[in-house]
Write a structure and sequence with these properties.
The protein is about 25% helix and about 0% strand. It is an all-alpha fold and about 100 residues long. The chain starts with about 45 loop residues before the first helix and ends in a 16-residue tail after the last helix.
C-alpha cells in the first residue's frame, strides 16, 4: 500500500480557493492558475517572462487573499502561492508528531 506524501493541504471537495477570497489555509485551485516547471524552460529570458506572468496573475495589490486584516499581513501566503505556481514548496504549517506518521 502506498501513501500519499503530498505536502500541500488538500482542498475540501468542491471548495474553490482563489485570489478573491480570504481563505488562506489551502493552496489556490481556481481555474486558470499558472503552474510552471522552470526546469522545462531553457532560455533565461523565457524564465523571466514566465515568472513575471505569475507575479502579474497573483495581482498582490488587488487580491483579497493577501489583504492585511486584524493587524496581520499575509506576505507569507503570497510567497507560498508564488512558489506553488513554480512547483515549489514553502512550509507554512506546524506539523504535529501524529501528522508526521
Amino acid at each position: 500500500m502506498s501513501k500519499d506524501f503530498t505536502v500541500h493541504m488538500q482542498p475540501i471537495n468542491g471548495h474553490v480557493h482563489s485570489r478573491n477570497r480570504s481563505n488562506r489555509a489551502y493552496p489556490l485551485n481556481e481555474s486558470g492558475i499558472p503552474k510552471l516547471d522552470l526546469r522545462s524552460i531553457t532560455s533565461i529570458e523565457d524564465k523571466h517572462i514566465a515568472i513575471y506572468e505569475i507575479i502579474r496573475w497573483l495581482d498582490v495589490e488587488n487580491s483579497k487573499r493577501y489583504e492585511p486584516s486584524d493587524g496581520k499581513t499575509y506576505c507569507n501566503i503570497y510567497a507560498y502561492d508564488f512558489a506553488y505556481c513554480l512547483g515549489l514548496f514553502i512550509p507554512r504549517i506546524w506539523w504535529t508528531p501524529k501528522a508526521k506518521l
